[in-house]
Amino acid sequence: MAATYSTKQWFVKERSGDNVDVEKAFELVAKDLSVDDLKEGQVLAKAILFSNDPTQRTWINKDAVEGRHYRVPLKDGDPMEAYAIVEIIESRNGEYQKGDLVFASAFWAEYFILAPESLIFKIEGDPADTLTLGLTGLTAYFGLLTVGAATSKDSTIVVSVAGGATGSVVCQIAKNVLGVKNVVGITGSDSKCEVLKKTCGCDYALNYRSPSFKQDFEDSTKGGIDLYFDNVGGWISDMVIVKIKEFGRVIVCGAISIYDDMKGGAVSAGISRDTWMQVIFHKIRIEGFIVLQFTDQYAKGLTDLWTWLAEGKIQLIKQVWEAGIEDVPKGMSKLLNGENTGKLITKVIHSQR
Amino acid sequence: MAATYSTKQWFVKERSGDNVDVEKAFELVAKDLSVDDLKEGQVLAKAILFSNDPTQRTWINKDAVEGRHYRVPLKDGDPMEAYAIVEIIESRNGEYQKGDLVFASAFWAEYFILAPESLIFKIEGDPADTLTLGLTGLTAYFGLLTVGAATSKDSTIVVSVAGGATGSVVCQIAKNVLGVKNVVGITGSDSKCEVLKKTCGCDYALNYRSPSFKQDFEDSTKGGIDLYFDNVGGWISDMVIVKIKEFGRVIVCGAISIYDDMKGGAVSAGISRDTWMQVIFHKIRIEGFIVLQFTDQYAKGLTDLWTWLAEGKIQLIKQVWEAGIEDVPKGMSKLLNGENTGKLITKVIHSQR
Ligand SMILES: NC(=O)c1ccc[n+]([C@@H]2O[C@H](COP(=O)([O-])OP(=O)(O)OC[C@H]3O[C@@H](n4cnc5c(N)ncnc54)[C@H](OP(=O)(O)O)[C@@H]3O)[C@@H](O)[C@H]2O)c1
Ligand SMILES: NC(=O)c1ccc[n+]([C@@H]2O[C@H](COP(=O)([O-])OP(=O)(O)OC[C@H]3O[C@@H](n4cnc5c(N)ncnc54)[C@H](OP(=O)(O)O)[C@@H]3O)[C@@H](O)[C@H]2O)c1
């Protein structure tokens, strides 16, 4: 008799609009998985850690349109996806054995069947560190070093959402690997500012909720800005871009401030006329990227990142919270509410079987 | 007794705000120039042709700030400047003789004294053609070929303000030099659309004032857009950028739709949230430039442009209007009102002395 796994899995019930309780977009469904269902190449796996990524919010956006996204957005009724560290329970794939821990593109469920293309790599180091380096560390790495190449030590770099997963790595690569003189991190709380100054090498850490933010920003960027690593979009980005120097660059990594506030998309992304004029007058280059475009260079990126970690050039700031499958969608709210410092990781607590 | 030249010269009386009669910003002052005033290296010159450039509007913008512009903006009381073809009347500069026609950075006046650094080059070809090629043709050339390099023949290129001075050259280089498959020009009248189709090699010429514009735009860019040469800013640009394909590029040459409508600068430049998300999702590169950054390559650019002109690959669309010195500021209104097709050139009619 083949083994059966009772699992609970989150599906997209109704894609989310702006500024509503995003957790309401999902519904939890109980189902049974049988090992008999495994096809050649597939594995049956168990969720160990979930990566919480702001981009997941964009996958379930009510107005997301295929061809206007970097991936096929999810539809109502689709199973919710997530990057995860999974443990192989049963395998019909020669590359993966029972017990292996694998970085995978998986689902919000306790157990799931994964196709071979969803299995990204077998992990060797610490699972939470692995989840923090890939794809988050890789995003910082490729964004800063490839798209933002040619950054001189004498630069002023501004990083938004600096206290988050990607931002905290960007600041450290900028300071400790590139040796950039003036690294300015912007984030949403004083406690995150502390981490930025003490651990992430920021010369200035600015709390955008502080009444003195505008003045603090002026003080920290007196000579102008060479490079802006943008995770936030909106008014913060407008304020930064308008101060960029001649031939300065903007790396558009994300725009979390608008993911849950698209207002039909027609509303300004926060680029004012003054700022747009600076793009011309100061010959500014603005460039978007998606880490997935560098898939063929992940191995090199990960080698560098693990080396810097071993050398103490970067430290991984991470926040692991434990959740039963029922609570998993709360991770998305936590990101949108700014509750995390560094990488937010969900450790899945499995109910006794 | 030294010769004296009675001249009239336009000064900036009060820099201009948004959407007011821009001609009111200037005042005409009569003065006498004496050849005795000429210092070593200087020339006394006579205005022959004035270049009408939208950027002149930005030099006299009420809120223009030094360090936030590509040049030092003009102040109240400054003489108004203009690129011009001038005739040397008296010279204390060994490189220029009486009678030479020179492309210069000059003033809105009948006669003026020019410093050696204002004399850009001696002209040989037709004066109006020379004014059209430099700096306008050079702007099209460097914008399209340097900043927008790597454009494949299989591309769709969209050009805004295509019926204007720069745009009309961009379209022709794209079609007749680069051999781009689909060149889409956007402009403000049906008559300009005719010129774009008949003379400038546009596969589609769209009138943004037509009720069918949005549909026409969809029809002409079915496969998405590879490159956008942006002269306009605002809602037209937003509409174009949101349709740019993966790894597509935007060359930000100008934003004439906002020069006279800055509303304090805080208003959106027209980049909506939908569009900004495309910058990330589709990894779009947006880059501003100022033709002056290529000064050291003008000679090569002009050689290519004159060659293409001789080969019939480009034709210069120009509109010459005659004006006494009293009427010169009308040229700025003409540009802002869209009255010109191609390069707007003022031929200065001198009063009898
Ligand atoms: N291009 C790519 O390939 C790629 C890959 C990964 C991530 N990203 C992007 O990078 C950004 C950061 O993602 P991450 O994975 O590193 O997660 P993260 O930084 O940990 O994101 C969560 C943080 O975002 C901030 N935030 C949330 N809502 C905000 C708002 N309305 N205004 C300002 N800040 C807000 C909060 O920090 P504060 O307390 O500082 O506000 C929160 O803690 C996101 O925009 C994401 O989409 C892009
Ligand atoms: N970056 C550089 O180095 C550089 C150098 C030269 C020029 N430029 C820029 O290139 C653009 C074109 O300049 P140009 O010298 O070639 O002159 P131009 O195209 O002849 O400019 C005048 C034309 O602009 C259009 N226009 C005016 N107001 C408008 C509005 N509110 N909305 C839409 N279109 C409007 C009109 O054409 P329609 O009938 O089509 O509306 C008008 O005929 C300008 O933005 C200019 O600043 C940049």
TrEMBL record, chains A, B:
PANTHER family: ENOYL REDUCTASE (ER) DOMAIN-CONTAINING PROTEIN, PROSTAGLANDIN REDUCTASE. This is Enoyl reductase (ER) domain-containing protein. It comes from the Eukaryota. Residues 21-346 form the Enoyl reductase (ER) domain. The keyword Oxidoreductase applies. GO terms for molecular function: oxidoreductase activity, acting on the CH-CH group of donors, NAD or NADP as acceptor. Keywords: Oxidoreductase.
